[in-house]
Amino acid sequence: MSRRHYRSRLLTWVLNSGPDDPVYNLYLILGPLLILFVVLVGRNSMTTVLVAGYIVGFAVYTIYNVSTTMEHPDWVQRP
Predict the structure, then answer these.
(1) Is residue 6 part of a domain?
(2) Assigned domain for 47 exists
(3) Rounded to two decimals, what is the model's pTM?
């Protein structure tokens, strides 16, 4: 298997897992709204906590999603 083929299979698996996930869709909607909120209100402790919570929540959910879906991804060939 060539390295290029491996990348395309991995990329396909990642892209297929994202669009049907309502939590990722929510993060995609909230991100720009959060940026707009910070621009309008200004940077202060409240907006810093909101942005940090957004980033931590996104990272934790991504790690959770990877840990639950990496058991049997379809791009891994079993012997």
Answers:
(1) no
(2) yes
(3) 0.63
